[in-house]
Amino acid sequence: MGPYYVGVIIPIVFTLIVRNTKKAKKRGVPVDVGGEPGYAIRNSRFASPVESAWEGVTTLAELFEQSCRIHSDMRLLGTRKLIAREMETSDGRSFEKLHLGEYEWLSYGQVFESVCNFASGLVQLGHQKGERAAIFADTREEWFIALQGCFRRNVTVVTIYASLEVTTVICGYKELKKLANVSGQLDTVKRIICMDDEFESDASLVSGSSNWTITSFSDLDKLGRENPVEPDLPLSADVAVIMYTSGSTGMPKGVMMTHGNVLATASAVMTIVPGLGNRDVYLAYLPLAHILELAAENIIAAIGSSIGYGSPLTLTDTSNKIKKGTKGDATVLRPTLMAAVPAILDRVRDGVRKKVDATGGFAKKLFDLAYARRLSAINGSWFGAWGLESAPIGQGYGLTETCAGGTFSEYDDPSVGRVGAPLPCSVIKLVDWPEGGYLITDSPKPRGEIVIGGPNVTVGYFKNEEKTNEVYKVDERGMRWFYTGDVGQFHADGCLEIIDRKKDIVKLQHGEYVSLGKVEAALSVSPYVDNIMLHADSFHSYCVALVVAAQPSLEAWASKQGITYSDFSELCEKEETLKEVSTSLLKAAKAAKLEKFEIPTKIKLLSEPWTPESGLVTAALKLKREVIRKTFSDDLAKLYIHHDSISKNTLFFLQSVQKS
């Protein structure tokens, strides 16, 4: 799985004044380590990797039970009451809109009772020791309860894939209908636990899944309550979760994470994020099948905080599924903490920017002034911060294979473009990658492939020894290392910056190297881009691109130009639209100082967004390159054909704009 960057809003308000007068703080320091030679950095505050921040606690099951005992009467899990579902029609398409009420809460004591009931009910259903269970559902309180219930019986939880040797599947009604359609392929599945009671009235579903025993979540709770079973608690080295990677760079792989692995990441975050406590409220909306969300919710439960569940489609007052006049999850919950991934933050930024630009006038000028002053403060100006306070954002870097652990920026580090110093559970090492031109001897900053070591590094891939041996190594001192495939460089204060990715680098026909991710990031600043995938290969000397059009911006431009069209897909096909978007991309490329061979010479403008449901992007909205290439293979082929036959006049136009 490729990297993700973590944004966590910390419940501290501070003002930055005269930052340039402070002496640079050492956040990471060099450390002597074993294994392949490289340049290694550890967290400056911890001499050795942290394994547990809680004395005597070695597993997630122990951590959860301890917290429930301490915080028994405090609220833990909250879910908004569903008042009504309504269908609205627009442009000939129907959309579901939700009318949601206030949050309804379960205390730590109530949740722990439900977890114990789930664990006991699982045994009563016939789930045997050593069998695995899959959880296949949207993020919700039942997901968390099922996870902790499985941990209490030392049952390994598998995420995403139900077909790989699991006997029990825990899912929602929506997911159950999907499973029923492929029931013939799920040979090992014996029992289904459905989080919703709706399935009981679906006669076709029940009859079509006769090989399974289907039990509702509520019935399982009752079964466990009436037939309690003693827990079978895991050990630190037992596998807690087999979590499948996103598949953004190939076929998904099942990462085996032990209780000790996840606990190490949770412990490290506890030591560096200040002010965490039982007054915090966390907004949960990312997929729990993603290690970032799973680790975050275990941390929140460990400190006595509250978790309020939402979804990406109901997050704000203007989210797609929110009925007009109904408040979004964030407005109702008023969280002090939330996690995010880059693509989601980009969409929040773009949404704010578009709304401000559309408002115009004095409101836009005021916003731009405040934004400029805040940015000035972050950059160290003494006058920029006066009158402005903000919630700090900690940016981090990690992978599924490292249980989200890697690096994290501290609360007093407002710098951007880098991902912080090593977490206390991790050591970060750069090793030479001569083929890409990255060496630890490079000046002024050592550069190389990022290798992560520490107790958070997972044990390998499920039934994939070849791939495990390729990217996991154990050194002569017993430390386990994971080779990320990402390329980074260290700053003088010990913080890491991600500068490239080995698998994203393509060699063109004449020997030039193109970093796909770097170019895509540069071109994404165009207001007309909702998403973009650059394509390059060694058979051509130029690049092409698939561009998912940003509908509001493009329609606003068309309106000003007086362009008429029947629907958005027709607008995307118009020659003047392609010319406008291409010019915008060239402007962005020039601003980013891209080389001529890095700029796509031909683009295909797409009207339909790429979503996780379409399978073209991951749950964290990262591109699934191989899937996109196959899906749009005909379009990509035509782009190359069209480029090769492009007129001299058009070539002259492109070259002129690039030089200007």
UniProtKB/TrEMBL annotation:
<dbReference type="Pfam" id="PF00501">
    <property type="entry name" value="AMP-binding"/>
</dbReference>
<keyword id="KW-0587">Phenylpropanoid metabolism</keyword>
<dbReference type="InterPro" id="IPR020845">
    <property type="entry name" value="AMP-binding_CS"/>
</dbReference>
<keyword id="KW-0067">ATP-binding</keyword>
<comment type="pathway">
    <text>Phytoalexin biosynthesis; 3,4',5-trihydroxystilbene biosynthesis; 3,4',5-trihydroxystilbene from trans-4-coumarate: step 1/2.</text>
</comment>
<dbReference type="InterPro" id="IPR042099">
    <property type="entry name" value="ANL_N_sf"/>
</dbReference>
<comment type="similarity">
    <text>Belongs to the ATP-dependent AMP-binding enzyme family.</text>
</comment>
<protein>
    <recommendedName>
        <fullName>AMP-dependent synthetase/ligase domain-containing protein</fullName>
    </recommendedName>
</protein>
<keyword id="KW-0436">Ligase</keyword>
<dbReference type="InterPro" id="IPR000873">
    <property type="entry name" value="AMP-dep_synth/lig_dom"/>
</dbReference>
<keyword id="KW-0547">Nucleotide-binding</keyword>
<feature type="domain" description="AMP-dependent synthetase/ligase">
    <location>
        <begin position="98"/>
        <end position="462"/>
    </location>
</feature>
